[in-house]
Amino acid sequence: MIRNVLLFSEGSREMRDVLGGKGANLADMTNHGLPVPPGFTITTASCNRYYEEGQRLQKALIDEVEQAMQQLESMTGKVFGGKENPLLVSVRSGAAISMPGMMDTILNLGLNDETVQGLIDQSKDKRFALDCYRRFIQMFGNVVLGIEHHVFEIRLQALKEQADLTDDTQVTAEQWEQLVSEYKKLIKKHTKEDFPQDVKTQLLQAIEAVFRSWNNQRAKIYRKINNIPDSIGTAVNVQMMVFGNLGDDCGTGVAFTRNPSTGEKKIFGEFLVNAQGEDVVAGIRTPRPIAELAQTMPAIYEQFVQLCNLLEHTYKDMQDIEFTVERGKLYILQTRNGKRTSQASLKILVDLVDEGVIDTKEALRRVDAEQLGQSLHRRIDPDAKVEVAATGLPASPGSGSGSIVFTADHAEEQMKKGLRTILVRPETTPEDIHGILAAEAILTARGGMTSHAAVVARGMGKPCVCGCEQLSFDPENNCLWIGEQALKEGDWITVDGSTGRVILGAVPMIDPELTEEMKKILEWADQYRKLLVMSNADNPVDARRSVEYGAQGVGLCRTEHMFMDPERIPVVQNMILADSFADRKQALDQLLPMQEEDFYGILLAMDGLPVTIRLLDPPLHEFLPRIDETTSGSMDEAIVRKVKALHESNPMLGHRGCRLGITYPEIYEMQVNAICRATKRLIAGGMNPIPEIMIPLIGHVNELRILREMVERVIQKEGLADRNIPIGTMIELPRAAVTADQIAQHADFFSFGTNDLTQTTFAFSRDDAEGKFLQVYVDQEILPANPFMTLDVDGVGQLIRMGVEKGKKTNAQLKTGICGEHGGDPKSIAFCHEVGLKYVSCSPFRLPIARVAAAQVAIAKEAGC
Amino acid sequence: MIRNVLLFSEGSREMRDVLGGKGANLADMTNHGLPVPPGFTITTASCNRYYEEGQRLQKALIDEVEQAMQQLESMTGKVFGGKENPLLVSVRSGAAISMPGMMDTILNLGLNDETVQGLIDQSKDKRFALDCYRRFIQMFGNVVLGIEHHVFEIRLQALKEQADLTDDTQVTAEQWEQLVSEYKKLIKKHTKEDFPQDVKTQLLQAIEAVFRSWNNQRAKIYRKINNIPDSIGTAVNVQMMVFGNLGDDCGTGVAFTRNPSTGEKKIFGEFLVNAQGEDVVAGIRTPRPIAELAQTMPAIYEQFVQLCNLLEHTYKDMQDIEFTVERGKLYILQTRNGKRTSQASLKILVDLVDEGVIDTKEALRRVDAEQLGQSLHRRIDPDAKVEVAATGLPASPGSGSGSIVFTADHAEEQMKKGLRTILVRPETTPEDIHGILAAEAILTARGGMTSHAAVVARGMGKPCVCGCEQLSFDPENNCLWIGEQALKEGDWITVDGSTGRVILGAVPMIDPELTEEMKKILEWADQYRKLLVMSNADNPVDARRSVEYGAQGVGLCRTEHMFMDPERIPVVQNMILADSFADRKQALDQLLPMQEEDFYGILLAMDGLPVTIRLLDPPLHEFLPRIDETTSGSMDEAIVRKVKALHESNPMLGHRGCRLGITYPEIYEMQVNAICRATKRLIAGGMNPIPEIMIPLIGHVNELRILREMVERVIQKEGLADRNIPIGTMIELPRAAVTADQIAQHADFFSFGTNDLTQTTFAFSRDDAEGKFLQVYVDQEILPANPFMTLDVDGVGQLIRMGVEKGKKTNAQLKTGICGEHGGDPKSIAFCHEVGLKYVSCSPFRLPIARVAAAQVAIAKEAGC
Known about the structure:
Number of strands of chain A: 31
Largest sheet of chain A: 8 strands, mixed
Radius of gyration of chain A: 33 Å
Structural class of chain A: alpha/beta
Number of helices of chain A: 35
Mean pLDDT of chain A: 90
Oligomer: homodimer
Shape of chain A: elongated
Strand order of the largest sheet of chain A: 12-22-21-14-15-16-17-13
CATH topology of the largest domain in chain A: Dna Ligase, domain 1
Low-confidence stretches of chain A: none
Largest interface: A-B, 50 and 50 residues
């Protein structure tokens, strides 16, 4: 028979899934001989069964609870519902994953009109006992019977006003007695039933209430935010009450074993003399710093410090401890791993390693890789008060403040004057590039996470908020409306690309930094990880930055951003507008030396490291201006005609990638030519350039066969045949994945382009889906996560696995990696390791995340998880 | 050692791959004792080796040819290059697959200044011998030495003019002798070398020339058109010459054993007395009908008729025979299966079965299923002279003539007057539906094979040509330009949706018909096929038509076309424009009875047969008017706003299919409700409606789980739970295929939507790809075929296979089928059979194709191919 109820002494630390975190810790502390008030835990499975049975407590459970109460009575020598020496208990929730404050607790359970007399006799403190009783009725009424808190509070306030009292401690026993009586009437009025005098009824109803609180609104939201499954359920801990409010040799407090803000190794917390725990939390009285306990109760303090050390060593982590002192005796009510800031988190890990408490593997295991990455962008001081005016998509992380400009030219002008601007546009086009470059941050009203603004901003590491639909442009008055607020050019705003917030005015910022702790952790990570970590970098600045952040090469160098450079755009447009091969060739001849410089710079920055250069990928119309109602009149007719000719109803599925290379081979030839020339110049200068050439959007082996021949021909012509420049392809179409065995015969490497692969596998246009239905899908849990953020292992992942397996079957030397945005996502990186990829490539700022995540999965796999 | 050369007597009919079709037939006829001039065949492999060796004849081949010539000499008693009784030969091409007229032939080879004297002595006809010689030099000069034909012809013409002759037969021996001398000088002049007198040199050069002709321009194009691989090569047949031009007891002719136009069982052909074969082909003299041979040479005719019967029985097919009579002796030079019209083809097959020559399986094997389908549309009389003004995409087959109208309203007005119109539009929108319905055919300037016009037209069975880019609209002059030609409303044009032709004026049409032969063949097909054949039908008319054509149910009933009905569009638009659930519900309540009628009609038409109804699929903006420069001013502001809000950058990957059902469940609920109500009314009327409900665009199991629950809830509410209405899904996304095991747990059937699956697997937007790069891909053989026409077995096929296997793994009862356009394509149907699908579903007019193709693959598999 599976037991529903276990005494603390019957449980263990390993039973966290069954007993919840709190229950497992209480059991563990009990087993270690710590001063824990005795009690028992109702399992998480019981909670699930409660829901399965239509929210009814099972007979078996009730029996076991009664039995456990009897054992508790014999352990404490107290009697539940007894007139003398009554046993009072707390009833608390506790899931396997900590959800602090989300579920309900009932204290002082077991009091009724009879047992309160027993408590008076026992404590010799009528005022205390009646205070307990009224607290219990209030809590029970609220939590179990669902009567709102303020209904009771109003009565208490009225009583204090009548008696002209300011503080609860001034209330007399008789006044509490009167309040008890009023509270009971309130309960009768609201529930049409008497407050239950039967203590067993009290207990069972309280247990049910805790079960129910698993599905209250705030608990459900907390679980969703923290990706905690709904299915795990909560345990219920029933524990003998101890009292911190029996006099001045009593007290209660909460403490962290280290500073949760900074990580400093020093006990941090608060306590109150003569008080119950809830007083500390409720803020009714101002608690005193824990250090003062050394003066107030020196022996207790010393014992507490020892226990803190013991608990830290036992749980090998900073602890968050609740304690109570009852008549000079210290009780530990709860211990758990303490929440902390990301900064503190890293310091504590490094310190724990230095102290020999944990090893580097364990430290890495505990790093929140995602959190690590967040600290690498300039961001809004979390302590600053901000006025959020609107919210859009968090398209490129980091924050920027500046004065509003509506045009790219204006942004550039301002920058030349040394002024900071935020470029605000309905959406951006390639012609805005110089503005994006000049601005501190970008804000657009339209476009998704892969819109032009988003992609370019991420590439440049500029903060960007996209698709902020609350923005409304008013060209007549040359202003911008956010709701009722009109903003003009020159007004200051702040854009937070990490959260999507648009804030009025400037706000204080925190600069990004690779702290000493981070550096240490990243060094450890490099010792364990199997995956190479490469960067997505399109220019020398990004390339250099990525080396700083630990990149072992460039895994994706996109050439389209080079084409979008404002100086080049006219030449690129000439190339596209060319009606004849000769005209196009002429424009390409002009581009050749520019591209050569691009590649020279990047290969130089990455000297001795591989640089995977992807040939031109986007559809050509992306390099032409956009036509809409406002622009069509003023534009050159030839351009308008060409824009219309190049129009596609689904450009994502259109004439792009290697399809351009097939139909306009001269463009790819020019690019390969430029790569070869840059390589030769670097070799001549004594450097060691390692270019690799990547063909995008291959769907059929013949495309790669033809283009590889072309690339090899150019390399040969340029006299670089003996450098063995690797030639590979993106695997970003389902067809490429399922025919990878054919394609691998012509590829030196596969780079899984998971952005496009996700789009085509799901048939989700990222731009369209994120604004329209994808959020609904994630909210309704139709999808476990946004598949553009975390790789869809079931679907897209299967295709990647197939691609790797089939590819290696026909080409054992094949190098495989990933260069979509998933390359910087910890969960996705774990999958990449599992599936046997050789490298992940991500944006420079995500490199630390990738390094740690790669180490984490390597360590986990080594441990056999 | 692999032999390069085989005597006819050493070959056999089975060696077609090695000896080519002609060589294998000559061998076979030789072995059957037919009067075939002796000779030998050089294998197709020798041709490939010739190319592999850089277009040089191998020593081994030359040796074998010489040896074979010696054998030929001993068989004929003639001497190659002999002064007396010289052996003359023909050298002809002959690939494994017939390519009539595409490659080269040399006749009379072996003549030189000495042997011509031998021929004079032997034939006792100097004029004949010198004629042969000049023919040979001319042919050799042209075919082997590459001198253009007219260079020789001019000399012959000059000679005849000088001598005032009108006909070649009037030329004297001396004049031929003079021409021979002139021809030899011509050759010296053009090649700087003498005409080769050495007969072995002649022979080897001629063999090389035939090899080379394998890769001449017309042969390459013919192979591409007919999907003949370049790799199979041609054989070369060297055969003793016989002469039909030695006098009036000689002659030559070509005959079919049955009429190739009608299929009538009667020898059909032509002959010439005293002539060589090329005279018949060249049209220099007018040949006489074969029947007259009975008068001219009664014994020969009788022998020929017998041989025709023998050959037909041997080859079990209508034969195309070349014959020569040399001095009263009949020689068969060649026999092959004759080309024929599609009408003749069917009649011959049915007759051959009736005559007991072949069985029904063999007959079915030989049917060209695709050709069968073509005859089912009204089409332009192939004998009519037409003026093609422009060409677009053949979007919906069939042809229509009518007067041009530029608006849907005008088309409708004209129809009400009983007038036939062609609706010509830049592109169509849902608001044009009534015009498409009213017009004979549709012509658009923009849009691909899946554009609105194309889809709607195919659904209605209306001829349609799309994306005809030569059209240019001139609204100012209310006319349409095709090149220099201005067309006004009222001008007549003809649209050929089978070929994409746009023709000026009206042209004679042929009506579609299911002939007796077709009916017989379809009956046979039904006996063998394993696949069920269903139709894609959206209305009662199509449903009834499809039953006529043999549909066993409706495999795809699209509901969006119902929404596009002009009476509904305002209601549908209200539904879409609704800002609140209540407003939307009101519009849906209006649609409910209309949809009920739709389903009632179709279920009634298909009484007792399953009807798979697909819930709404396209993105909602398809039901709103399109906004462009010309319309935006005049439109209701609310509509403009909604159109903009619904705008998607890649609608194919956007908010459509089941994503609508998830976000607007009330739409799907209304549809299921309507299905249930129609079903109940039919049951009450004593009918047996069998609806099945299909959810489109499922990508994740949770979508289907949620929507299935919703559908079941409605069915339950309507009291139809015990009808067990099957609920299934389209598998049209790569993710659905790879996670089919999960999805199948909630599906009663899978219908592979191969249009969308092809789009997403390749990332080809059909609309964009076909106009831009897909043609290049097919032309350059990057893809073996347009994957929207013929299923891409390697890529998309793998996903289908995976979908079927995984689906059946978790749901053994799962019914699987296909409902994309591939469901009507023979090659794709073969794949469907192989992969174990239960049914194919296609448009009504393609049902006969599907029935035959399904039988063909069943027969082939049974035979173990």
